[in-house]
Amino acid sequence: MADVSVIIPVMNEKRTLRRVIREAFRVDRGAEVIAVVNGSTDGSERIARACGARVIVFPKPLGHDVGRAIGAKAAGGRILLFVDADMVIPARRLRPFVEAVRNGVDVALNDYSGPVRKMRVHGVVLAKHALNALLGRPDLEGASLTAVPHAMSRRALETVGAESLSVPPLAHARAICAGLVVKKICRVNVGALNPRRGRKGRGRSLERLIVGDHLEAIEWWTRHAEHAGSYGSGGRQSMESGGMP
Amino acid sequence: MIRNGHHARRPGAGFAPRARMGCVRRPETGSSRRGSSSRRGPPVRRRPARIGPSVHGRQPFRRGLPVRRAGSRPGIFRRKRRMPAALRRLVGRRPGARGAGTAVRHSAGRRTGMRCAGTSAFRRWRDLGFRSGSAWREAHPAAAAEEARAALHDHVNRAFARGGEGENANGKPAGAMPAVIRTYADGFMRGAGFSLPVEPVPLNGTASAVVIAGWNEAALDAVLGQLERLPLREWIVVIPEHATTAREVAERHARSVILPAGEWTGGAAGRALGAARTGADIVLFVDGEQPAPAGELARFLRAVDGGMDAALNARPSGIAKFHRRPPADRLLEFLNFSLGRRDLGVRSLASLPFALSRRAIDTIGAHSLAQPAKAHALLLLRGMRVGLGGSVPRLAMSDPDVRDHLEAWREAMALRGVRLSFPDRRRNRAAAGEPAP
Q1: Which of A90-99, A137-146, B242-251, B344-353 has the lowest mean pLDDT?
Q2: Which residue on chain A is closest to B332 by alpha carbon?
Q3: Other CB atoms within 10 Å distance of the CB of residue B177
Q4: Do A116 and B323 lie within an 8 Å CB cutoff?
Q5: CB within 8 Å: B406 and A69
Q6: Chain B residues with beta carbon closer than 8 angstroms to that of A141
Q7: Of A86, A187, B126, B127, which has fewest CB within 10 angstroms of its CB?
Q8: A4, containing H or E segment
């Protein structure tokens, strides 16, 4: 059984997919690379198979982040690393996340908060900071499961539930409330790498989607906090008073 | 000229909407008078660079969000003055203290209120006030200072408050600019023979204040000293149980109503207590430990009297860039964002001072003010008109009240669904085994 599983949701990414998979294999000896190809018409599936990845195919688009949940369910590794197919991050910059999990961290986050040195930030940046503040983890700043790359232990996956990964902020809130060790590891500036910024018309609706995800996480936290009878500093406290619902 | 330049920079000067300056209706003719000095050669830039170097005579870069101020012309976004400017007004200068004889002839394109205080239109307003003041004093020869203030506010209301059709019974311009009113008030006080600082605000309804006092009696005295100037019917001073000195200070002010707060719970609970004790049309909530200039507080009254339901503290001067802001600000900003009011930034009921209309208090209930974030969300959810009033720099916020924010979101989600106005229409959650939101 592989030690590390790398999960790559793919939707029409033939331009970068080959290099992404190559770097994924380089992260760890014998790594398992899972490509969740959905709604792809550009031959991404063929490329993924040719590169030696395990391929899960959905003819229709799954929607944002759902591929991660499906890939995680299929993964067999002790450590799960999540990357996107549209940006090539060298293996040496992915390894620290895997190493952190190997050394006891449950959720290893990208220490990337987005552009914050301004008066008015992007809605997603605001949402990530607000959720962390609400969960009693302002030290995480804007680091979140929303952003790749990140890695998690199998224990973390089982605690938050693989299905919740399709709404990453929800998984993020669950991980923190369950008292898992959630840490920022190092910074990969995905803002600069992300070619999506250039695609017209997607930015705004994506912003609203991700902000809504954070509201779902908050809604879960209101129910959970009520159930556990403890508001406030999240984390360990709520673990003591009942842990996960 | 040099002296005039100084006047132009006085902190109180930037008060009036500039564009309306030129069309003050003169009392006797009703005709309109426009700025006429554009003929006198090139305009002189009078306001010096405030922050940072001025490059090639252009406006210097200034920090702060563009903020719509109460009393400014719709559509005009003005940048906030620096904090010291607002505070300097605290030091206290009698409104229009220049003296009527200082004839200021220039009236360049950018005229501000006080600079024109000596022009003939303003002198007429001052004379009008003076005559009303002397007439009142003749009728009340033994009147005390408090009575003079009350009479002034009464006269200001009659002269300037908005009637049904945008003009009051006397045919004077409704909603006249503050500088005109202040000039009139200055004249009135002189006519009445008093030298008292006043902050005249024509109001259609009654106004009260709720003062959340702390243990700092010197600050409380300063706060009440500023409230004295405003047309408030009374102020309810919510005082911690054992703060006896503060209580004595409050009792020295005639319009104080003392409300012992039992256990001290940190302020927000006091707001609910105080709000429940007053039936005024406008209720101004102020911090008893943080003096704010009456001129800024007047903006809150003006905003609510003008139809706003909640006038929040604009205080953009204290706002740092995002990464420097405390966690509490992030929650407030996201709450505003998620309720569709990105424009409010971090401004909310969490920060004193603010003013509420009677409609707002009745709609959300006075008791709900004990939880500022929740009360703020309720205002927005119930369709209240929430905007900005004056601008008062605030003390640093403490840690966020997570419970309060969670309840705010719970209220919102109960009304508008879990994702509020941020739907997810694209995800195939069933494929991952996750239930739909």
Answers
A1: B242-251
A2: A130
A3: 20
A4: yes
A5: no
A6: 323
A7: A187
A8: strand A4-10
Condensed to tens digits (0 to 9), the pLDDT of residues B11-70 reads 433 333 333 343 344 343 333 444 444 444 455 555 544 444 434 444 444 444 444 445
| B134-139 long-range Cβ contacts below 8 angstroms, 24+ apart | B134/B191, B134/B192, B135/B191, B136/B188, B136/B191, B136/B192, B137/B191, B137/B192, B137/B193
Smallest CA-to-CA distance from A148 within A190, A186, A193 is with: A190
User: With a CB-CB cutoff of 8 Å, which residues 381-420 of chain B face chain A?
Assistant: 400, 402-403, 405-407, 409-410, 413, 418-420
Q: How far is B330 from chain A (nearest CA, A)?
A: 5
Contact A219 B402 (CB under 8 A): no
Hey, is the C-beta of B90 within 8 angstroms of any chain A C-beta?
no
Q: Is B321 left (phi over 0), alpha (psi -120 to 50) or beta?
A: beta
Give the model's confidence band at B396: pLDDT under 50 very low, under 70 low, under 90 confident, else very high: low
Interface of A with B in 59-78 (CB under 8 A): 60-66, 69-70, 73
pLDDT tens by residue, B288-308: 888 899 989 999 998 998 889
- Beta strands A79-82 and A4-10 are parallel
Average pLDDT of the residues of chain B: 73
φ, ψ of residue B49 to 5 degrees: the values are -60, 135
* B361 burial via Cβ count (<10 Å: 0-12, 13-18, 19+): buried
Q: Do A117 and B432 touch (CB under 8 A)?
A: no
Identity of the residue in B321, B334, B335 whose CB atom sits nearest the CB atom of A118: B321
| Encoded amino acid at A170, one letter | L
Distance from CA of B357 to the nearest CA of A (A): 29
* SS3 call for B14: helix
Residue corresponding to tokens 């190809």: A37
For B204-239, letters b (16+ CB in 10 Å) and e give bebbbbbbbbbebbebbbbbbebbbbbbbbbbbbbb
